[in-house]
Design a protein that fits this description.
- The protein is of the alpha+beta class and 455 residues long.
- It has 2 domains: 280 residues, Aminopeptidase, CATH 3.40.630; 120 residues, Alpha-Beta Plaits.
- It contains 14 helices and 19 strands.
- The strands form 6 sheets. A 6-stranded mixed sheet has the order 1-2-6-3-7-18, covered by helices on one side. The protein has a 4-stranded antiparallel sheet with strand order 12-14-10-15. Strands 4-5-19 form a 3-stranded antiparallel sheet.
- Helix 1 packs across helix 4 and helix 12 crosses helix 14.
- The radius of gyration is 24 Å and the shape is globular.
- The two termini are 23 Å apart.
- The structure holds zinc ion.
- The site of zinc ion has 5 residues, from loops.
């Protein structure tokens, strides 16, 4: 059966590629509210064409969620979480081809959103389509949950999930993203980090001043620099008291998993143009820090004059944007309180904190059936063991719609080591897209079998 489905996918590769390129032509930039309705309409038509059903368009406080529940033979439910919004295309001058005109360059297809996340969204729909066409039915129930605000922090997804708990319920979920590593192995990720995004704001005089006044007027820029300096030591440890206290301790299993996970250090350094990693770390210590430890990162600093040449000014304001990537156990709201107390205790009561985003970390246990099914599928198809990462160093709203409701979630997809997500010249390899369709089709059967054995 599987071979027939693979043949069908091969025969229809241009058809599925057209689904993808048509979708990538729509500039669905949630941050600018562009092309969003058009995207929803496109998906409605695609569901109609592929499955003879219209998806439900579920309202949220912002962009709607496109949802569909397709019935299968067995009661098992596998859901797919994806998003139809993309990042803005800026800086447009660095694109070698137009961002919303999908272009074949060598063995790649280049377009904004193709790796993050339209390639995966379409590959998953195509897999379900191929199974239905070849076998006339689905072995298990499939749910598609496509949100339109992932790239702007999934601001309404938590409330959506609370409101539609029954709809999103599933035995397991396949998460939106996935990439090949530097060695060309498929990376399978079992979780995501959490996030606390804040802005620290310092203010002194009611207007910018001639810098001659620096003799007698305090500088908010210096003030902010000193506050920032109190957050971390020279070894990159966060100095906020209690910051590390709630972290779920690592088990032997976690450390074993980390051992099997690999980072191509040399390739990665070359790719990034850096000479060494933080603290000159390498090997297990490097992996441990990257995967299992939280961060305190300055995303941007601004104060006074930063243009060309000189301007002698004493700024009246200074602002820094900071993101903390959190790990399981760390609650964003508690971390925010700890940050406030830390600033207060160090005499920075005047520094205002503005919050921009909070997400809770999520990790699926490796013993979950969906993990076994994904690993088996990828290994069988690629004839290589996948590179399993306990959680990616990045963040997503996985907890909000999966772990919070007891749904295990695993991520793998059609991106590659140089997919340039969120950056100019975003791309996927065309063969990875076709392979991705086949692996998802294969997974649906494998997971169905694993779950049937249990019952
Ligand atoms: Zn993204």
């Amino acid at each position: 059966m599987e071979n027939q489905i693979f043949e069908y996918i091969d025969k229809h590769r241009d058809y599925y590629l057209k689904w993808l390129t048509d979708f990538c032509r729509i500039p669905s930039v949630a941050a600018q509210n562009r092309g969003m309705q058009e995207s929803v309409k496109y998906l409605e038509q695609l569901f109609d064409e592929a499955f003879n059903v219209y998806p439900e368009i579920l309202a949220t406080g912002g962009q709607p969620v496109v949802f569909s529940h397709l019935q299968g033979k067995e009661g098992t439910i596998l859901s797919f979480y994806n998003h139809y919004d993309v990042q803005p295309e800026d800086p447009i001058e660095l694109w070698k081809t137009p961002p919303f005109e999908p272009t074949v360059v060598g063995n790649k297809l280049v377009a904004r959103g193709i790796a993050d996340n339209k390639g995966n969204l379409i590959a998953r729909m195509a897999a379900v389509h191929a199974i239905k066409k070849v076998t006339g039915e689905l072995p298990i129930d499939i749910k598609f949950i496509f949100e339109g605000e992932e790239e702007i922090g999934s601001i309404n997804l938590g409330t959506f999930a609370e409101n539609y708990q029954e709809k999103i319920q599933a035995d397991a979920c396949i998460w939106e993203f996935g990439y090949k590593d530097g060695e060309g192995r498929i990376e399978v990720s079992l979780g995501v980090k959490g996030l606390l995004y804040v802005e620290l704001f310092a203010k002194e005089a009611n207007t910018d001043l001639h810098s001659a006044n620096a003799t007698i007027v305090n500088s908010p820029a210096w003030r902010l620099v000193k506050a920032l300096n109190s957050l971390k030591d020279d070894q990159d440890r966060v100095l906020i008291p209690g910051f590390y206290d709630d972290i779920t301790p690592l088990t032997d299993e976690d450390l074993e998993m980390l051992q099997r996970y690999s980072i191509e250090e040399k390739k990665l350094k070359e790719h990034l143009g850096i000479k060494q990693f933080v603290n000159d770390l390498t090997g297990e210590e490097l992996k441990k820090k990257h995967i299992y430890e939280p961060t305190c990162n300055i995303c941007g600093i601004h104060s006074g004059y930063t243009g060309e040449g000189s301007k002698t000014v004493l700024p009246s304001e200074a602002v820094a944007k900071i993101d903390f990537r959190l790990v399981p156990g760390q609650q964003p709201n508690k971390m925010l309180q700890l940050l406030r107390s830390h600033l207060d205790e160090n005499g920075f009561t005047d520094i205002e904190i503005r919050t921009f985003g909070e997400e809770i970390a999520a990790r699926t246990h490796p013993s979950e059936k969906i993990v076994g099914a994904v690993l088996e599928t990828v290994e069988k198809y690629t004839k290589q063991s996948p590179n399993v990462v306990p959680n990616t160093p990045g963040t997503g709203p996985m907890y909000e719609i999966c772990q919070k409701f007891g749904i295990p979630s695993v991520s793998f997809g059609v991106g590659n080591f140089t997919s340039y997500t969120h950056a100019p010249n975003e791309n996927i390899e065309i063969e990875d897209f076709i392979d991705g369709i086949k692996m998802v089709a294969s997974l649906i059967f494998t997971y169905g079998k694993v779950m049937a054995q249990q019952n």
